[in-house]
Amino acid sequence: KRITVEEVFWSFKVVLSDLYLVLLIRSRLSVYELKERRVPKYNDLWVDRRDIQSLYTVKKISGIVTVIKISDETFLTGDIGGKVKVWDIKTGSNLRTLDIGSAVQDFGFMGDFLVTVGGINGEMGVTFWNFET
């Protein structure tokens, strides 16, 4: 399936997992679910395909988002205002917000820890946050 955006925009982010696709265009966030199916191509040959289905669109995400990542049934956004937000990927509801105190350059997971890089060009360094608490 082709998704076409017929406008000029300055901010675009894409993140993909085996099950979901998250697109951020300007401050509008769209979440799609990917489903595998097998279709017959010839007599005994099957081809794996993925269907894409829109789950929802959030018309306005606050803050200027610098990074998006998917983790299991959630996705996370980091913004220039220092907020890392955890979202339910199926509903779009904000589950929690972590304020790291400076612009979010990147983040990742290391076991139960959320590892963040903060500040412009990483000037605030790397911080480990216990993600479970």
Kindly describe this structure:
The chain has no helices and eleven strands. It is mainly β. The mean pLDDT is 85. The protein has strands at 12-16, 20-25, 28-40, 46-58, 65-71, 74-79, 83-88, 94-99, 104-110, 113-118, 125-130. A four-stranded antiparallel sheet has the order 1-2-3-4, with no helix packed on it. A four-stranded antiparallel sheet has the order 5-6-7-8, with no helix packed on it.
Summarize the helix and strand pattern as letters. Answer: EEEEEEEEEEE
Average pLDDT rating: 85
Instruction: Please state the overall shape, judged from the principal axes of the Cα atoms.
Output: elongated
Spatial order of strands in the largest sheet: 1-2-3-4
As a whole number of angstroms, the C-alpha radius of gyration is 17 Å
Brief description of this entry?
This protein is mainly beta and 133 residues long. It contains no helices and eleven strands.
Which characteristics define this entry?
elongated; single chain; 11 strands; 61% strand; 133 residues; mainly beta; 4-stranded antiparallel beta sheet
List the helices and strands and how they pair.
Layout lengths: L11 E5 L3 E6 L2 E13 L5 E13 L6 E7 L2 E6 L3 E6 L5 E6 L4 E7 L2 E6 L6 E6 L3
Antiparallel strand pairs: 1-2, 2-3, 3-4, 5-6, 6-7, 7-8, 9-10, 10-11
